Amino acid sequence: MFKTIADTADCEVRSVIRFLKANNVKPAGIHRQLVEVYGENVMTDGMVRKWVRQFNDGRTNVHDEARSGQPTVVNDGLVAKVNKKIRENRWFTLRMLCDEFPQISKTVLHENVTNRLNSHKR
């Protein structure tokens, strides 16, 4: 049994997939070897098949594609905190929330309060 390698970069795993695919290893065999070396949570069999297909279609880059836009600071944990603040004080104002959560813009807070939390509906 191999020693499990933890904390791998996605591009490392994709490089291994590309290498094994070039050696004519079937997707199921690639997945089995990945799990042996990187552990159970490395990548699903379906994702391995997706990457094998992409490499078959001519992809050579193992790195993530560039994405447009700015990453959001709003996540489920932050939404839960905003929701908790609103529940603590039903007479909240957007200004009060902006003071409580300075890392979130007023526009984003407003959108999340009205769209995600449905606080504007009574």
Automatic annotation (TrEMBL):
It holds the Pfam family HTH_48. Residues 14-58 form the Mos1 transposase HTH domain. It comes from the Eukaryota. InterPro entries: Mos1_HTH, Transposase-MT_Hybrid. PANTHER family: MARINER MOS1 TRANSPOSASE-LIKE PROTEIN. This is Mos1 transposase HTH domain-containing protein. The lineage of its organism: Eukaryota, Metazoa, Ecdysozoa, Arthropoda, Chelicerata.
